[in-house]
Amino acid sequence: MSSPSSALRAGSDPYHLGHHNEWIGTEPEYTGARSGGPAPKRIVVGYGFWIFILSDVIMFSVLFASYAVLAGNRAGGLGPRDLFDLRDTAAETALLLLSSFMCGMASLAVAWRNQLWTQITLFITGLLGAGFLALEAREFTHLVSIGAGPTRSAFLSAFFTLVGCHGIHVTVGLLWLGTMMAQLLTKGFRENIRHRFLCFTLFWHALDIIWVGIFSLVYLIGTILP
Amino acid sequence: MHILGKLTWDAVPFDQPVAMVGAAVVIIVVVGVAALVLAKGYLPYLWREWITSVDHKRIGIMYCILALLMLARAFIDALMMRAQQAVAFHAPGYLPPEHFDQIFSAHGTLMIFFVAMPFVIGLMNFAVPLQLGVRDVAFPTLNSVSFWLTATGALLVNLSLVAGEFSRTGWLPYPPLSELAYSPDVGVDYYCWAIEISGIGTLITGINFVTTILKTRAPGMHYTRMPMFCWTSLASCLLIVAAFPILTATLAMLLLDRYAGFHFFTDTAGGNSMLFMNLIWAWGHLEVYILILPAFGVYSEVVSTFAAKPLFGYRSMVIATMAICLISFMVWLHHFFTMGAGGDVNAAFGIASMIIAIPTGVKIFNWMFTMYGGRVRFTSAMLWAIGFMVSFVIGGLTGVMLAMPTADFELHNSLFLVAHFHNVIITGVIFGVFAGYSYWFPKAFGFVLDETLGKWAFWLWFIGFWVAWGPGYALGLEGMTRRLQRYDVAEWRPLLLLAAVGVLIMLAGILVQLLQLAVSIRTRAQRRDLTGDPWNGRNLEWAVASPPPHFNFAVLPQVNNQEPYWDMKQRAIDSGHLQTPEPHYEPIVMPRNSATGFVCAVFATVTGFALIWHIWWLVLLGLAGAYATFVVFAWRDVQEHIIPADEVARLDRANRAARSQALSRMRADELVVHE
Ligand code: HEM
Ligand SMILES: [Cu+2]
Fold first, then answer.
1. What's the mean pLDDT in B641-648?
2. Which of A97, B45, B184, B597 would be a feasible disulfide site paired with B145, CB 3.0-4.6 Å?
3. What chain B residue is nearest to A43 in terms of C-alpha separation?
4. pLDDT of residue A27
5. Residue A1: its pLDDT value, please?
6. Is there a single domain that holds both residue A59 and residue A108?
């Protein structure tokens, strides 16, 4: 019971995340359990990145709150109903969600250590992400061209900032994705590369969740409510 | 458009003598230090051992040095303000309004972001991994990035002395004053970019330490066995993770208003400056707890060590810490009771604010009961702690007064408020980091600071503080508002003169601290800490040599209770087995040095400066550089180096020998006492 290898015996939950009581008094080393010494690198990296995502979500929640406060302040200009086109946004949503799905496929490919499929699925992930960005850029330029740019009213400032900040995140994600693909290609499925890939997938999926928030709170509610 | 954006020779304050002196000092110090380092050939050493170091102890020390340097700068600002107010009775004084305004803004900004924060984070860096019984933080290279980004922010604030001007809008840039329409120069931009960049560093620190504390502890260290300083650091870092993104987003919105004509906080096109108030204080109130909680942790360590007793009410202390952490989310509105929220809302926030006094009171009682019945040693660290307890109660009580909305309508923006927050910040945070400084200094450098001078420094600071800020309370009650460049109320004059004397006494305290450092370094041979345990300490940081080896622990310690090192010592003394059997040494894998943090900060400085002056090509260059740095970092193949087992054994054997001698001495003492 006290040998470190017993941690692995059950097979299903080698690090005993969330189960601590049974460990008190047995203290095996290096399992990552509550009192068992430092957690392995994989856990530490993933955990740290989760906390980063949490902080990023808080930043978005500030932008959401500002949007909610300022959404009514249109300074005599147009409002959500006049400006948003749900068909475009639906397409954007579809692209982003599919991209996330592809990213999930890539995780499987990495788990199988299949370089070809990893590269293919990641490439599609990126392509779909780029498609999303293109649609968003089109929406933005259209708004600006009809005089509904971010400087027009507080509502539009908040809108462009919230949606644009998500867009910037997607852009950074694409940069990361490119770097990641190159690394996987040149360095193979080395441990630290896999850790980074894990973080990338977390990031990419988190952007989806933010987008779902934007889609519902900004676009859907905006076009439904007066 | 100009190739250097808005930057021209006009930016250098040739026409303002006082500002020019400031600029000259900055240039002389920077150039002087650089020249000295190059001439003496220190650069390779500095580069290898410090600048590229990812060792948490080194990074912690660098944070503290940065804080001390910025303390000097911001204290000079305080001296200048106090001097101005001493002479500006019915007179313009020597500082024109636009310069005075820059000084209080720079003073507040520097003190909060580049003195208190780096000092607290520095102590955390130094002590937390040692107390947890591990070899480094979760992400060592990112830790170095954090430090260097903080240094970038400090550099940018000080660059504003040379090129352009600093913000005149106070330590928090309230709109609409901070909007382009009313603050068209680069001052607010310096402020915002400095804080944005250093804020990213702070956020990374928060993430790093939450992960470190929750995921990497020595075997056997449950949550309820963690030293108090680790608990308070955890609480503080949780608050960092929750609060700093708010600051980043809020300042980003202000920047968008200023740079791109957005309307978040403007008073045109539907902007709403109350949105800024709410957001900035949603961060700002958490910030004060980010600063004070680790200081509470230091006091807990110091009091229990020097009372030679375990901390009284450990669990209640943990609960109080986490309660403060939680309730502090619900009080931000007390910073603007007067701004029209209405009676009900004000009452709710007032009551929530007063409730925080309860867990804080619990802590004060716990420290007192820790001392009660103990054999208290009045070392300088202990004096800082006692001075804190006495003074902080007063600061806390005036805080409760301010938390009453009705009273706050009178006291808001008066010197009473300013006296209150200096009371809690100086006698709370600053005394705390000074206590930590004298407590952990021997651990960091291997010799003890001079105690006599340390006690002098304490008394000068303590008396100086009350002489400077006692009158502040009175002035506030007499109706003096804050940030006054000149005044013509005769009753204020004697009190302001007294306050100026107080600042001079504090200045004497700082000079004594410098002297203490100089004397202690010169006489370090006699004040060596050979055992690694100069204070008869209780937690794991004292179980390693002073200074600790690069890898901290030759073998990770096994923790069996709340005070693992004290326990080890007691068992050794009781059993007479002064030497535990030698462990089996294995090679240790440590992270390699990395220039990533430093290079990143160079690009961040370039980018920040270019953004402030609208030099767009340079912005792109800086960002590309930062990205390239990360790619290069990501590409490296060897991230770790290995310390061979015999090297580990050699270092550890020396430490064990010194320690067992010390233990036998203690045992002898103990026998004498029993007879
Ligand atoms: C060391 C002794 C210190 C002295 C003598 C001092 C003095 C002053 C003075 C004279 C003012 C301006 C008061 C006014 O508005 O009329 C001020 C403002 C301020 N101080 Fe200090 N201070 C000291 C330390 C600190 C520390 C340690 C901190 C924080 C860590 C701090 C934070 C601030 C802040 C935030 C302001 C407000 C600036 C503003 O109005 O925006 N000070 N201080
Ligand atoms: Cu507050």
1. 92
2. B597
3. B215
4. 39
5. 32
6. yes
A24 and A84 belong to one structural domain: no
Residue of B202, B204, B211 to mutate when probing chain A, most A C-beta within 10 A: B211
Same domain, A13 and A90: no
Q: Span B276-299, mean pLDDT?
A: 97
Q: Check A59 against B248: CB less than 8 A apart.
A: yes
Cis (ω within 30 of 0) for the bond into B92?
A: no
- CA distance readout (Å), A80 to A67, A159, B228, B269: 12, 9, 52, 16
Do A100 and A19 lie in one domain? The reply is no
Please indicate whether residue B112, judged by its CB atom, sits closer than 6 Å to ligand 1.
yes
For residue A11, is pLDDT > 60?
Answer: no
Furthest-apart CA pair in chain B: how many Å? 88
pLDDT for A226 equals 63
Q: CB of B206 within 8 A of CB of B240?
A: yes
> Is B422 labeled as catalytic in the residue annotation?
yes
Write down the pLDDT at residue A20: 42
Q: Return the CATH number at A89.
A: 1.20.120.80
Q: Which two tokens stand for residue B335?
A: 């910073």
**Interatomic CA distance for residues B277 and B263, integer angstroms:** 15
Q: B107: Cβ below 6 Å to ligand 1?
A: yes
CA nearest ligand 1 atom 22, residue: B78
Q: Using alpha carbons, select from B224, B259, B110, B336 the residue that is nearest to residue B563.
A: B224
Using a 6 Å cutoff on CB, does residue B170 contact ligand 1? Answer: yes
A122 and A17 both lie in a single domain = no
Q: Report pLDDT digits (tens) over B430-451.
A: 999 999 999 999 999 999 999 9
Give the residue ranges of DSSP H helices in B523-595. 564-575
Measured distance CA(B29)–CA(B49) in Å, rounded: 22
Number of H helices and E strands in chain B, helices first, is 22, 2
What count of CB pairs under 8 Å joins A to B? Answer: 137
Interatomic CA distance for residues B505 and B346, integer angstroms: 39
**Element spanning B589, H or E:** strand B588-591
pLDDT in tens, A15-39: 444 444 444 444 344 444 456 788 8
Ligand 1 neighbour B492 (Cβ under 6 A): no
Q: Could you say which residues from 205 to 224 on chain A have a Cβ atom under 8 Å away from some Cβ of chain B? A: none
Residue B665 class from Cβ within 10 Å (0-12 exposed, 13-18 middle, 19+ buried)? exposed
Q: B419: Cβ below 6 Å to ligand 1?
A: no
Distance CA B155, CA B606 (A): 11
Say whether both A110 and A154 belong to one domain: yes
List the single residue in A56, A59, A153 with the smallest CB-CB distance to B270.
A153
Distance from the Cα of residue B669 to its chain's centroid: 39
In terms of domains, do A107 and A214 share one? Answer: yes
Active site residue B169: no
Task: Out of B58, B334, B420, B443, pick the active-site residue.
Answer: B420
**Per-residue DSSP letters for B101-156?**
HHHHHHHHHIIIIIIIHHHHHHHHHHHHHHHHT-SS-S-HHHHHHHHHHHHHHHHH
Per-residue pLDDT tens for B351-409? 999 999 999 999 999 999 999 988 999 999 999 999 999 999 999 999 999 999 999 99
Cα dihedral sign, B475-B479-B484-B488? negative
Q: How many other β-carbons are positioned within 10 Å of the β-carbon of residue B254? A: 25
A35, B222: Cβ pair inside 8 Å?
yes
- CB atoms under 10 Å from CB of A225, counted, come to 10
Distance CA B573, CA B310 (A): 18
Residue A74: strand, helix, or coil: coil
B115 CA closest ligand 1 atom index = 30
Which residue range forms the structural domain that includes residue A20? 1-38
Q: Which ligand is nearest to the CA of B327?
A: 2
Is residue A61 domain-shared with residue A28, that is, in the same domain?
Answer: no
